[in-house]
Design a protein that fits this description.
10 helices; 5 domains; 809 residues; Immunoglobulin-like; Rossmann fold
Length: 809
């Protein structure tokens, strides 16, 4: 026995010596993560991630896969190709659309599973276990606070902003360096406002500059301080500048710095003011010495506010009332949802998904199926029985009846599923807002109804469209290859839906920051209550059905063909003169019963009503979520087109596709309106903001929907009524202002512009006649404030406002 063991051991040693075995090299990666800027992000918004990879093993080539779930309707994996030689460290900067806060507080979550590396690629490769360093969770900004990023070579000069507030909440001020600017606009979503002052942006990479521009067009708010040579410093963003600087002057008395909270006539040693030509369609927020001081303009869905001075100059930065002045500027120019900020994209995802996932083949041909089934039950079976009886062949019924049943079942199946059998179907919908340069911005959604199971890769364009997968079954599943994989390319985004079930729907939604679509050139005027003129279309698409929206009304404009003029002659409502910006209930004028609120959910009745239902829902969403240039305070032309701006390509058989695009464009309409007028709150643009209060919050704002109802927490609030853009303030003479209160338990005040103070409204109905003009500001606004105390009844009935006067040209 011992001899046998010795022989076996000798043989094993011999084999090992003669045939050496290869030993797999150790594969290990150390991973560390930096979230957002300084570890801070905003709930429900995209942010940048800096991932540091250290290879402690052999050379690696593969995919870094990052799990993201921006909200409870979106979930997917972002794929980044990586080459990582042995012993090297690589920093990967990637922008993700967000992460829900609950993920980090869930005890089942393992932060390691957020990021994984697959050698050879995610599809067929092997996962290499990464060693995470210290597990660091992101810090979430308080949801009602304004997040303001600063780009400046002297950021300390802007520290006064830390003392300012927005909607009675302190501002979250974040100082950025060049390296902090992401290469993708998605990573900038965490900022509500970006302020660039005394900073040379032209030295920043072109990719980062494009990201900043796309962020603005997707809804961001850019603020610019002015210094000599600003246009050159802005680089790719110079076309966003509102003031084309050609000279400068200085003043020591600037009355525009006076507000209700500040001294009436602030005095400075010297403040340098840049002068030059103001770009077209720019709104002057403040002027002094006949020069624009603060300007504002829309770009896409976003805005630019520019100051004609260096906002960080020592003279201003050391002025003790400067932070309070900034509070006034932020309230006048910035629009941030005070309630439900983190849920906006979740609601958009849910409602866009509801629309894009509705396919014609989802509706079974019920009538045809009933007829077939009735023929089978009533005619075929009894008829076959009597026929066989007459022929004396009833013994054949055992095979004839089952055969007929099988044939009828197959026919019923083919009738009901003919569209799905032919191939996979695609659908896309979008809402696009076109600016005065012919550039469109908005949101789009794509969907596929598969005709088989398995893997479905889709190449989605145009360039810049950022679709992210939707999910119908969210859970804390963390990174999972069953989730859709998102690979961003130069010209398109590739989304691969894995393990798709037979006859299933998969979809994605995202922002469309910038597409050159051309625009509508309108020469319209209202004469004698009739809208007349011409619309010349330089659009790249035909509009099958167009409307003009004003107030709560909609006027049909018919069809607008690309490259062709359209003559307009439409009677308008007497109460709708002068024409004004639309309210969110304007959809009811086109589609009776259309839900005007954000949470309206409906479904088409049948296949024939599907297209009209999609139009109705897109229009409702556009108005409810203000996916248009709402700050222009002008009427809108809206139109529907089946010419798709979204392309979906796949390597599987495709039977048909459907598209529906809603375009919007603000329009300037000349009015012959002259003489006496009466305006009520229905014709005035209304906005509400928070002045003060520890827990002040706007739970419901019914003003945009034509309601006079607010639901608020205890605090002090401000309501602003704005004249229509068509009414130039210099042509307006006010004779009478009436304010009627419908609620006794809430104290209201009105701002007297000339006295610079709020005056209490002591009676249920107050009429100002001789001094009515004292309450109308130079920007055409009337301001009321109220204080809500106690929480037993959070509802506030907004006062009814009536303004009478004369309009002279």
């Amino acid at each position: 026995m011992k001899s046998f063991i010795k022989i076996a051991v000798f043989i094993l040693f011999f084999i090992a010596f003669v045939f050496p075995q290869s030993v797999a090299a150790k594969e290990e990666i150390d991973i560390s993560v930096q979230y957002g800027i300084d570890g801070k992000v905003q709930i429900g918004k995209g942010f940048p991630m800096e991932i540091t990879l250290t290879n402690k093993g052999e050379d690696l080539s593969g995919d870094l896969v990052i799990y993201s779930n921006p909200n409870y309707r979106s979930e997917g994996n972002i794929v980044v190709p990586i080459e990582l030689p042995t012993g090297e460290e690589k920093v990967v900067n990637v922008s993700i659309p967000g992460q829900v806060e609950n993920y980090y507080s869930n005890p089942q979550s393992s932060k390691n599973s957020l990021i994984r590396f697959y050698k050879g690629g995610w599809k067929d490769g092997e996962e290499i276990k990464g060693a995470m360093g210290k597990k660091v969770n992101p810090s979430f900004f308080p949801e009602n606070r304004l997040v303001l990023g600063v780009l400046s070579d002297s950021p300390d000069s802007l520290n006064y902003l830390k003392l300012s507030k927005y909607n009675a909440e302190s501002i979250e001020l974040i100082t950025l360096k060049e390296d902090d600017i992401p290469n993708d606009a998605t990573g900038l979503e965490m900022f509500d406002v970006l302020l660039i002052n005394d900073f040379n942006l032209s030295t920043v990479s072109t990719e980062k500059q494009h990201a900043l521009k796309n962020w603005v067009r997707s809804g961001g708010h850019l603020m610019l301080g002015s210094t000599p040579g600003l246009s050159q410093q802005l680089g790719e963003l110079q076309n966003l500048s509102l003031l084309h600087i050609d000279d400068q002057t200085s003043f020591d008395d600037l009355k525009f710095f006076a507000t209700a909270e500040n001294e009436n006539n602030p005095s400075f040693s010297q403040v340098d003011i840049m002068t030059g030509e103001v770009s077209e369609h720019t709104k002057v927020v403040y002027a002094d010495h006949s020069l624009p001081m603060v300007m504002n303009k829309s770009f896409g869905l976003g805005e630019v506010t520019q100051f004609s001075f260096n906002v960080g100059s020592e003279t201003l930065a050391t002025w003790e009332l400067y932070p309070a002045w900034w509070e006034d500027i932020l309230q006048k120019t910035v629009d941030k949802f005070t309630n439900g900020q983190q849920y906006m994209m979740e609601e958009l995802s849910d409602q866009f998904g509801n629309i894009v996932n509705s396919f014609p083949s989802s509706f079974l041909p019920v009538t045809a199926l009933i007829v077939l089934f009735s023929v089978y039950l009533i005619l075929l079976i009894p008829g076959l029985y009597f026929l066989l009886k007459r022929l004396d062949k009833r013994e054949n019924s055992w095979w004839i009846i089952p055969s007929v049943a099988i044939i009828v079942s197959v026919v019923i199946f083919l009738v009901g599923a003919k569209n799905r059998i032919a191939g996979s179907q695609t659908s896309d919908v979008s809402i696009l807002s076109i600016d005065d340069a012919g550039i469109a911005s908005g949101y789009g959604a794509v969907s596929i109804l598969t005709n088989s199971g398995g893997e479905y890769p889709l190449n989605i364009s145009p360039r810049g469209f950022n679709p992210f997968p939707l999910t119908t079954d969210y859970n804390y599943d963390e990174l999972n290859l069953n989730h859709a994989m998102v690979e961003k390319g130069q010209e398109h985004t590739k989304i691969t839906f894995n393990n798709v079930e037979y006859w299933s729907i998969r979809s994605a939604i995202g922002a469309i920051p910038s597409i050159d679509t051309g625009k509508l050139v309108a020469d319209l005027k209202v004469d004698n209550q009739k809208l007349v003129g011409t619309i010349n279309s330089a659009l790249s698409m035909d509009i099958e059905e167009a409307f003009l929206l004003s107030g709560s009304n909609a006027y049909s404009l018919g069809e607008i063909k690309a490259g062709a003029p359209t003559e307009v002659s439409v009677n308008t409502e007497k109460s709708d003169i002068p024409l004004s910006a639309p309210r969110s209930d304007a959809a009811n004028s086109i589609y009776q019963g259309a839900a005007s609120g954000m949470y309206g959910q409906s479904a088409p009745d049948n296949k024939e009503s599907l297209d009209e239902w999609k139009k109705q829902e897109l229009l409702r969403m556009m108005l409810a979520y203000e996916i248009h240039q709402q700050n222009l305070n002008q009427p809108l032309i809206v139109g529907f087109s089946t010419d798709s701006i979204i392309s979906i390509e796949m390597d599987k058989k495709q039977s048909n596709s459907g598209s529906q695009t809603l375009i919007t464009q603000a329009v300037d309409i000349t009015s012959s309106f002259e003489g006496d007028f009466t305006l009520t709150e229905e014709k005035l643009q209304t906005a509400i903001s928070i002045l003060e209060g520890v827990n002040a919050d706007i739970i419901h704002n019914g003003l945009p929907e034509g309601e006079n109802l607010l639901v608020v927490e205890p605090g002090k609030y401000q309501i602003t009524y704005q004249l229509p853009e068509q009414m130039k303030i210099n042509n307006v003479s006010i004779h009478k202002l009436q304010v009627k209160l419908s609620q006794e338990d809430t104290a209201f005040s009105i701002f007297n512009v000339e006295k610079g103070e709020f005056l209490p409204l002591e009676d249920r109905s107050m009429v100002f006649e001789e001094n009515a003009h004292e309450f109308l500001a130079e920007d055409g606004s009337i301001v009321l404030s109220f204080e809500k105390s106690g929480s037993s009844n959070p509802e506030v009935r907004v006062p009814a406002v009536s303004l009478e006067g004369e309009y002279k040209k």
